[in-house]
Amino acid sequence: MCVADDRAPEESDGELDVSMEELDQDLADELDQELHEQLDQDVDQDLEDALMIANARRRHGALGGVLAAGMLGLDQALGRKVKEEIPVVVASNSDPLDIDREGIVIDVDDERSVVAPPMPRNGQPPPRKRAKRRREP
């Protein structure tokens, strides 16, 4: 669509050029912001993948690291999208109970209720097992 302007090009006050420059700058800023967000997401994903491979290498040795890297590559090659986790928010009309100190009482009906008393606390924490170390021959 073409719009005719009755003014001569010399008489134009330059408003059109300024507004186009502002629009270009706004568009460039918006694209830069989107690119930065995408780059941040890519870096986060790469870091998460590297940590997953390092964890597999530490837990299962070199072969585990190679297998984890291969599976991540296969997942990327298939192009599956990452499943987003939905945040779960639960509203309550009262403060949460401390079941370790108070126990649990649930009313089944008018005459019956279920009671689970709190666990008795002894002064010492349970003993921890020590990991067996391999002895060098």
Explain what the structure shows:
With 137 residues, the chain is mainly α. It has a domain of 74 residues. It contains two helices and two strands, in the order H-H-E-E. Strands 1-2 form a two-stranded antiparallel ribbon. The mean pLDDT is 77.
Order of helices and strands: HHEE
DSSP strand tally: 2
Q: Indicate the proportion of strand residues.
A: 5-15%
User: Which runs of at least 5 residues are low in confidence (pLDDT < 50)?
Assistant: none
Question: Helix count, per DSSP?
Answer: 2
Q: Order of strands across the widest beta sheet?
A: 1-2
Structural class based on helices, strands and sheet pairing: mainly alpha
Rounded to the nearest angstrom, the radius of gyration is 32 Å
User: Major sheet: size, sense and barrel closure?
Assistant: 2 strands, antiparallel
Distance between the termini: 88 Å
Helix content: 40-55%
Q: Report the mean per-residue pLDDT as an integer.
A: 77
Q: Tell the overall outline.
A: flat
- Assembly state here? single chain
